Amino acid sequence: MKKEIKIGLLGLGNIGTGTYKALELNRAHIEETLGAALQIKHILEKDVTRDRGIAIDPALFTQDPATIFDDPTIDVVIELLGGIEPATSFMVSAMKAGKHVVTANKAALAANLELLTNTAAENDVKLRYEASVGGGIPLIGAITESLNANVFSELLGILNGTTNYILSKMSDEGRAYDEVLKEAQEKGFAEADPTADVEGHDVANKLSILMSLVFGKRVLPDDIPTTGISAITKDDIAEADSQGCVIKLLASAYRTPDGQIECFVQPTWLNKTHPLAGVRNEFNALFLKGNAVDDLMFYGKGAGPFPTASAVLGDVIAIARG
Amino acid sequence: MKKEIKIGLLGLGNIGTGTYKALELNRAHIEETLGAALQIKHILEKDVTRDRGIAIDPALFTQDPATIFDDPTIDVVIELLGGIEPATSFMVSAMKAGKHVVTANKAALAANLELLTNTAAENDVKLRYEASVGGGIPLIGAITESLNANVFSELLGILNGTTNYILSKMSDEGRAYDEVLKEAQEKGFAEADPTADVEGHDVANKLSILMSLVFGKRVLPDDIPTTGISAITKDDIAEADSQGCVIKLLASAYRTPDGQIECFVQPTWLNKTHPLAGVRNEFNALFLKGNAVDDLMFYGKGAGPFPTASAVLGDVIAIARG
Questions:
Q1: Is the pLDDT of residue B102 over 90?
Q2: CA-CA distance, B161 to A171, in Å (whole number)?
Q3: Which among A39, A250, A278, B67 would be 20 to 30 A from A224, CA to CA?
């Protein structure tokens, strides 16, 4: 293994900054575990002056992605721009230049999974994306490695922290959707334009990725029947509660008796005894049923700079190891 | 990668039989995923005649472990004998003969972790043991791979299905310890001699393994302060319930303010809102807190032939791939 792994970072927004900070915080632990140093050599970012609460050498910044792709010393490119383009094109360019790629970008993966995985294979580089679904929860590694001996029959996920926060507050405090959404926006748990979250599009991107990994079936996000939570009322929540249930925005997929695989995103009644029913506020969880392992659940923080950084840096370490 | 991976299986009890059956059940899926065939070539087992509910070629059986260690075509040895010896010596012999080893044996690992990991390193072979803690739950892969960028501060585990079944029944049905233990023995959830489970020794073995992986600290099982559940009364459960708590047998470890790491196994009051409080009956779960990922929980079946087989075969696939 190389003594020093050089990294090109695409994007220094909240997630990029969190990744930079988490690497600084745990550098000694990571480098001891790995037996190699990690160096962020270039950062593609326009906003050089923003106060990110951490000192970053201005010489690291570039506004030209070719600085990264054409640098033969760069081993790994971390893509944290978000959005389908230019992120997809940048990842393809990086892999064609022989760089491994780590990304947290569910939209780009859901839209272009074949292109990205084929490009990785053709150029004999790794493409890893643990952070793209469930943030810091190590579920993609588990599905693609430890659980490989299973044929799966069912998948249920709470995969969006914003909507789970809103539904939890409506349920726990008996409040209305609009009021809780406004509070979530004020607290930074929901974006000014919450459409992608509350209408379920973010979850559909994540379910699209999971469909490929869990069931080996490619379904584009636009082909997943998707209903969000914006029409859920206080009365809906109260009615579910009176029947011993909670309402959760679930990504669901299952194998039908005739071998088809159905999937959808919709608000769903869950019995309060179900393992997913207690997943509250900004937490995410994935429930899986495999024919050897039986019922499994993974639970943790599905978003946020540090949990996402945990997954991104875990992928970088896995690449560096081997 | 080789076209066919040849396996020597040590032990064809309940777990060995489950592993054999799970491989047969999912062979097509596993071999397609892997791009190679898996062949069990020899089985070390004295009981050739027992009805295991599956046809096994009698020519596979051997009563001489050297048949496996001296066979140059064997790539992987799966150790499912249980107990510290002769399992440890057999694993050492297999690794010295250049075979990778997969084991579910928490007692041998907890007692001899340095010997086993050093032998693997010296002979340039892999030693994998996902099944040894938490059965089918993919937590060792997660801790040693995806979560590598974290420094952990806390670990709480429900790691024994027998005791969790007994405590769940006592709690849900208001029954006494002796009565529920007897029922668990009749149903096969508890052994005729339940000491290792109910007195916490099984959990101490698993916590010993986790201490090395999560905190990098070696603690022998006998050095872990351990209290079981045999003294828990109906009144204890009722008192906890009246305070909004349940009693769980927890493996606990945490980092103290001065940087020490404490660990113990004992019945513990858990607030009913804690993610571990809802883990019922034979299910296991591990709660971890990392300084990047924050709170995480893994939940699933911690024992049983098929869940254990899921982890064992996942390890075999990982070795075959890499």
A1: yes
A2: 32
A3: A278
**C-alpha pair distances (Å), A60 with each of A40, A55, A56, A63:** 8, 11, 8, 10
In angstroms, rounded to a whole number, what is the distance separating the alpha carbons of residues A82 and B296? 25
Question: Which among A149, A273, A275 has the least Cβ separation from residue B314?
Answer: A149
Reply yes or no on whether B187 is catalytic.
no
Residue in A217, A255, A221 with CA at minimum distance from that of residue A110: A221
Q: Please report which confidence band the pLDDT of residue A305 belongs to, taking 50, 70 and 90 as the band edges.
A: very high
d(CA A243, CA A228): 22
Q: Which domains does chain B have, with CATH numbers?
A: 4-136+305-321 (3.40.50.720), 142-301 (3.30.360.10)
Which of A206, A217, A272, A301 is catalytic? The answer is A206
User: From CA A98, how far away is CA A68, in angstroms rounded?
Assistant: 11
Distance CA A297, CA B300 (A): 6
Using left for φ > 0, alpha for ψ between -120 and 50, and beta otherwise, residue B284 falls in beta
**CA–CA distances in Å: residue B141 to residues A139, A149, B176, B293, B314:** 11, 14, 38, 16, 10
Contact A149 B22 (CB under 8 A): yes
B69 contact A CB<8A: no
Tokens at residue B302, please? 């911690």
Torsion of CA A186, A189, A192, A198, to 10 degrees: -130
Task: Pick B307's closest partner by Cβ from A22, A151, A292.
Answer: A292
Q: Please identify among residues 256-295 of chain B the ones whose CB lies closer than 8 Å to any CB of chain A.
A: 273, 275, 278, 283, 290-295
Mean pLDDT score of chain B: 96
Model-level pTM? 0.96
Q: Which ranges in A44-146 belong to alpha helices (H)?
A: 66-69, 87-96, 106-122, 139-141
